[in-house]
Amino acid sequence: MRRFMLPIICPIAQTLENLFMSNLFSPAMLLMDRLRFSAKFSVLFIIVLIPLVTMAAILINQYQSEVLHMENERKGLAYVKILSLPVEHIQQHRGMTSAYKNGAEQFKSRIFSKRQDIDGYFKELAKIDAELSADLQTQGQVDNLVSQWESIKAHSFEQDWPATLKAHNAL
Predict the structure, then answer these.
(1) What is the DSSP string of 131-167?
(2) pTM for the complete prediction?
């Protein structure tokens, strides 16, 4: 029975498809019939140009977003590079302070020298932070680190070793 219905259904489906397509394109066909040849090409040019301009705008916006993201990553890397210097030298200060607390008196002058180095690194970090803090959202964090460092400098020779170690590790 299916074999006999197929020839009947196909012409009906094809007729419906032709009717749908002719109704879909009939306004465009009426417009194109009324226009001159140059106007027809102008309409086609505009129809092709609109998606091209839209896609170009989307692509430019995407590229700008990617460039902004990479610029922020570059700023973050510069900030981390400067931030790593005081961290590294504070760890060395912690080691020297430990040696001094355990009886190595020769480390006292090296500790004061290391403190001056660390103060200089914090000044560099403060300069970079002033430039990048708005972009990296680090406002006030360098001041907090500096105040913790000043506390360590003021109390590291007076405190017992566990308290000094805890202060160094907290920083």
Answers:
(1) HHHHHHT-TTHHHHHHHHHHHHHHHTTTS-HHHHHHH
(2) 0.63
